[in-house]
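Give me structure tokens for this 407-residue protein.
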Amino acid sequence: MPTPIKIASRLDPIKPSITLAVTAKAAKLKAEGVDVISFGAGEPDFDTPEHIKAAVHEALHKPGSGKYTEVGGTLALRKAIAAELSAVHKTTVEPDAVLVSNGAKHSLYNLFMALIDPGDEVLIPAPYWVSYPDMVMLAGGRPVILETKAEDDFAVTAQQVAAACTAKTRAIVLNNPSNPTGAVYTRAQIEALAKVVVEKDLLVISDDIYRQLVYGDAEYVSIAAISPELAARTILVDGVSKTYAMTGWRIGYTAVSKNGPLPLIKAMAKIQGQSTSNPTNTAQTATLAALTGSQDCVAQMRKAFDERRQEMVKLLRAIPGVQCREPKGAFYAFPDVSAYIGKKSPEGSILDDDVQLCDWLVEVGKVAVVPGSGFGAPGFVRLSYATSMDNIREGVARLGKALGTLS
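Here you go.
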């Protein structure tokens, strides 16, 4: 009998991604012929726009499309990224301060590995994207979770940030708009946070992957645009996955301003050079076409997401006992379903927490939602409205019907 293999102890506190687990479970049931509606995946249901695919098709017939590129991405793409980020964040980003990676998740992983020493602390407002704390722990750091409230639209306050800082605090993660809540920080909130960032000598890890998906009267406000001093402290993380329906192309990027921490980008490139090397050549071609081509596709998808957002929120609020704040960005609703925690199913099971509730919903209710516990918010669930209006109406109806059977 083989000797049991010893797994590295740094993996002991690491949890599998709960969003991927829910999506995989729904996909498995569908493959078995079960009619499940899934609100799990953070992925647009639209196809990648035609002009982006056409650019790749054309490039495939030219020499060099299957070759390595520079580790950090082609110069043409880095120039395009630098130009866009400079305009958005009202600062100067040079092409050599841009690192293109295999998705924004890869960008964040590189960032934490390059920035964090054992014992360093990173402030993470909750609810948070599931991978932030685990990435910090993989780098040997300590995630410091800052709880927010639904009645405050899930915004962390400047006072909370100031109170949480210690001599070991290196950075704060600012995901705006937020996954999972869809919350968007106001200008006043960003300006208040900016003051604390300077006072406490913090770096800001600005995860802006949803910044183009903002609705109604909400406005995306860049903390880097507040002042040159803030720009110098901000690490921009972005990508094309959500905005251009390019999740599977796996392109994200990290950048700093002209006066920002360029050595960090160089350190991240060193890590990437010893792990994945360059992002896929053809995916970089697609990204260049996305950033420099017509933006009509973005406006069209944003309009559709907005219509779906309003419908989903209306339907969720109609379910007795469910409370749902209005998401102002991204493509998620994050309702409070705590009224149903601890209730008994018709089969006789007590659903003690949101994970058990969500397991029961997919098995019995035939609707997949993600438990809030994975985002640091037990009692909530996340639903993606990056799906058809028919799925939204039928899926939320199933959710309401299933919850109505609990006693």
